[in-house]
Amino acid sequence: MNMEENKREITSSSPDHKVFSMWKVFLPVLIGLTVVVLMFWHDARKENLESVWHSIHFDTRVAVCIVLGFICMFGRDFGLTWRFRALTNRNLSWGQAWKVDMLCEFTNCITPSAVGGSSLGMVFLNSQGIEMGRATTLMLTTLFMDELFFVVSCPIMILLTPENAIFASGGSAFSHGIKYTFWVVYGIITLWTILLFMGIIWKPDWIRSLLNRIAGWKLFKKWGNQISALGDNMVATSKELRTKPFGFWLEVFCGTALSWTARYLVVNVLFFGFIPGDDHYQWVILARQFVIWVVLMVSPSPGGAGLSEWLFSEYYGDLIAVGGLALIMAIFWRIITYYLYLLIGAVLVPIWLKTTVKKHEANKRHSEVVS
């Protein structure tokens, strides 16, 4: 389904279309939450999480660190809101940019991580007054900046962290598996980033020609229109981005780096609160976040539901002496970084849909009067 079809479906004034769209939004949420609950129930029987829970002292230190976790996510949202403002040359207000950020994050929460939720970002930008063609350009730019951050930062973290620390020690099947998965996914991200760089900055016409050839192959015939549209969008994006000064790129990248780093630091403050005295592991904890988020990019579940909690428990388990505490910390991690956005989205999306439908109906009536 291409972007115009998505837009027509979301903005349709037909009650049937609206009901269908809402089911498409909330069904993945239900599936993801069911997986999480089942996993918690299974681990609770195995690890006796009730006794672990009672052993945790929710003192001032823990409470402050949980609050700091939420503040870190505020920093993440500030970074992305700042980036949307910079990308639109301040055409969006802080409130509008924040709303686009929340809508994009909610979509990320209800779609498989391997697919991503930013595909509707141009629709959200368009609803805030950004022309659809330019909105597509902006979302391709955000995609490129996110991938560029991973390509640049991950090798730095790997080089500055001992291998047996960042990929977990012991030579277990899990440590080998996460290591190989990370490097395979990182390689794919690198190739995709190079393609985006060539497509939207360096050789857009060459990339469009290549994509048009691929679109003609029998194997990709089903997605031929979308592949061709991607090439056209890259050329259009290139025309705008080539005129941007260095300051524009610096500001956008700083917003990107702030958003991802702030998200990663949530785990650091949780460790600081729940496990006093292990502060010397803070760099390793941060470095492992880079690995986790790269691995989660291939998650088939909505928002990485289920896989995220399991991965956190297994990956950080060797740094946590109390059995079962890793899962308790994973719960708080997901509440702060995932369920919070499901809650905000559940409130914001119906309001956005109602406003968008009203605009659609008003534009339709205006067109009928003019014609």
Low-confidence segments = 1-20
Cα-atom radius of gyration: 22 Å
The chain-level structural class is mainly alpha
- What gross morphology would you assign? globular
Give the SSE string: HHHHHHHHHHHHHHH
Instruction: Give the beta-strand count.
Output: 0
Could you characterize the architecture of this molecule?
- The protein contains 15 helices and no strands.
- The chain has helices spanning 3-11, 15-47, 49-55, 60-87, 94-110, 121-127, 132-159, 163-166, 173-202, 204-215, 224-241, 246-274, 282-295, 307-315, 325-370.
- Helix 4 (60-87) runs antiparallel to helix 12.
- The protein is globular, with a radius of gyration of 22 Å.
- Residues 1-20 have low confidence and may be disordered.
Structure summarized in a few sentences:
The chain is mainly α and 371 residues long. It contains 15 helices and no strands.
Give the secondary structure arrangement, pairings included.
Elements (H helix, E strand, L loop, with lengths): L2 H9 L3 H33 L1 H7 L4 H28 L6 H17 L10 H7 L4 H28 L3 H4 L6 H30 L1 H12 L8 H18 L4 H29 L7 H14 L11 H9 L9 H46 L1
Helix pairs in contact: 4-5, 4-12, 4-15, 5-15, 6-7, 7-9, 7-11, 7-12, 7-13, 9-10, 9-11, 9-13, 10-11, 12-13, 12-15, 14-15
Task: Label this structure with key terms.
disordered N terminus, mainly alpha, 371 residues
